[in-house]
Design goal:
about 425 residues; alpha/beta; seven-stranded mixed sheet; globular; binds 4'-deoxy-4'-aminopyridoxal-5'-phosphate
């Protein structure tokens, strides 16, 4: 009797698996490194102290005693987990309070809390889009946006990162597709750190009758006077139909949300599979996010936002002065300060040299970025002080000189 081929066969000798094995063998793997203490500006990692320039804890609130106390209180009051969906036994007063305050913060009618940001994107796009609709995405959008689009089976029309002429072409085609049209962009792009030109994107969406969703994962708790994200900073909040955010960055926890009009949010509550068919976020995570949100919205918030952005500017200028090619966040700097390396292998070698010099950064190689676009993604927190950033810059300086002598020049700053 004929039998099926082994479905596991594809993992053997797979290019990715081979890369992983080779990097592990040479102890050059920049991923899955072990943290041995709190996720602060300086961390204990694999037996040594390292400056953390690879975290999304932008405001440093994971260490805030009020956020920690809120997590502890929620744990004490409700236990370790809810063991059920939001629909059934998984909704707490904490979820409802958080949803109400998130909607107020975003200036929308309502908000809905998911167990992760990834699920918020998948569970919204996979529900609000249907076969026959068209969804237009920036090629640098987060993977969870793409996953949601694919699940929906809507027609996917990507445009090259920030090329609004291409976006307009896609909008023209989408109108001819004949279904509903949604444009989805990151407010702040997670790897490049740049801000989407939302003023023009809003105009184009309105001209063609398309709805707009903005992923504010890296903008919320960072940009705008209220810290409500890129949409606030660029003055287009009223023209953005849906705003997504996560608790896994400035909100110092884990979870995600969608904010928007009542009719859409209510529909998600009873239709979104990634909302209904998963356990609700653990009480400690929800309590921590609520406490972090309250700090951001308190009179303390603007000072925290200023500090993280000033640190972003300081690191960006410092790295530029050392001769690295830094990708500048336009029109404003963000906490994400990417250093372009271009070549994947060089990026990994440079990561290792920095790691050995006591600085941890993130490495983004293809397919996280375009081929030939490898970068070290550095990011700052409000709680990095200048002495620590200066130490990191000193390490970058030493490493650059040695690295270039051995491996050739790194890309120079764009003039
Ligand atoms: N959107 C963007 C732009 C992100 O960077 C991330 C997380 N890296 C997510 C969504 C998913 O968020 P979460 O970590 O809460 O799943």
């Amino acid at each position: 009797m004929p039998t099926a081929i082994d479905v596991f066969a594809k993992v053997r000798g797979h290019e990715r698996a081979e890369q992983l094995r080779a990097a592990r063998e040479a102890d050059l793997l920049p991923y899955f490194r072990r943290l041995e203490g709190p996720a602060g500006p300086v961390v204990e990692m694999e037996g040594a102290e390292r400056i953390m320039l690879g975290s999304n804890n932008y405001l440093g609130l994971t260490a805030d005693p009020r956020v920690q106390a809120a997590a502890r209180d929620a744990l004490d009051k409700y236990g370790t987990g809810l063991t059920g969906s939001r629909l059934l036994n998984g909704t707490l007063d904490l979820h409802l309070q958080l949803e109400a305050e998130l909607a107020e913060w975003m200036g929308t009618e309502e908000a809905i809390v998911f167990s992760t940001g990834h699920q918020a994107n998948v569970g919204t796009l996979g529900t609000i889009l249907a076969p026959g609709d068209t969804v237009i995405v920036d090629s640098a959008d987060h993977a969870s946006i793409l996953d949601g689009c694919l699940i929906s089976k809507a027609k996917l029309r990507p445009f090259k990162h920030n090329r609004l002429d291409r976006l307009e072409k896609m909008l023209q085609r989408a109108v001819d597709d004949g279904g509903g049209v949604l444009v989805v962009v990151d407010g702040v792009f997670s790897m490049e750190g740049d801000i989407a030109p939302l003023e023009r994107i809003v105009e184009l969406c309105q001209a063609y009758g398309a709805r707009l969703m903005v992923d504010e994962a890296h903008g919320a708790g960072v940009l705008g006077a209220r810290g409500a994200g890129a949409s606030e900073l660029l003055g287009v909040e009223d023209q953005v139909d849906l705003r997504m955010g996560t608790f896994s960055k400035s909100l110092a926890s884990c979870g995600g949300f969608i904010a928007g009009p009542h009719e859409v949010i209510d529909f998600l509550r009873i239709s979104s599979r990634a909302f209904l068919f998963t356990a609700s976020g653990v009480p400690a995570a929800v309590g921590a996010a609520l406490a972090a949100l309250r700090i951001i919205r308190s009179p303390e918030g603007p000072e925290l936002l200023k500090r993280v952005l000033d640190n972003g500017e300081y690191l960006s200028q410092g790295l530029d002065a050392l001769g690295f090619r830094v990708v500048r966040g336009e029109p404003a700097v963000t906490p994400i300060v990417p250093v372009l390396v271009e070549d994947d292998w060089k990026a990994v070698l440079l990561w290792r040299a920095l790691y050995d010099a006591g600085v941890y950064v993130n490495v983004a190689i293809h397919p996280a970025v375009q081929p030939g676009g490898a970068l070290l993604r550095t990011s700052v927190m409000a709680t990095h002080d200048r002495a620590v950033l200066d130490r990191a810059l000193e390490a970058f300086k030493d490493v650059k000189a040695k690295f270039e002598a051995e491996h050739g020049p790194l890309p120079e700053p764009a003039s």
